[in-house]
Amino acid sequence: MTDSNRYLSFSNLQTGRPVVAYCSVCDRRFEARPEADKRADDLILKVRADFDAHKCNGASESRGVAHFAREARDSGATERHR
Questions:
Q1: Are the C-beta atoms of residues 41 and 61 closer than 8 Å to each other?
Q2: Are 45 and 53 in contact (CB under 8 A)?
Q3: Which residues span the domain enclosing 26?
Q4: pTM over the 0.85 mark
Q5: If we measure between CA atoms, which residue out of 46, 49, 56 comes closest to residue 19?
Q6: Total count of domains within the chain
Q7: Sorting pLDDT into bands at 50, 70 and 90, what band is 75?
Q8: Are the C-beta atoms of residues 55 and 45 closer than 8 Å to each other?
Q9: pLDDT tens digits, 26-48
Q10: Phi first, then psi: what are they for 78, rounded to 5°?
Q11: Which of 4, 9, 13, 63 is least crowded, fewest Cβ atoms below 10 Å from its Cβ?
Q12: How confident is the model at residue 73 (pLDDT cuts 50, 70, 90)?
């Protein structure tokens, strides 16, 4: 997979909870914690900016597969963003 094929997978988006997402290639975790002056959209945008800025280091397809296996175990809804 190339960087252009990676996407950000959000897990368990809930009001008042940290926004957590993972890179589909390297399985890196991105998180933004809620603050009194931040809207949920701002948290999602921060996570997205961090994702866009990161470089997958030593990424392999097998790490991406591990992410999908973990995602399948999640009981909450997930969203995928390219």
A1: no
A2: no
A3: 3-81
A4: no
A5: 46
A6: 1
A7: very low
A8: no
A9: 999 999 999 888 888 999 999 99
A10: -125, 155
A11: 4
A12: very low
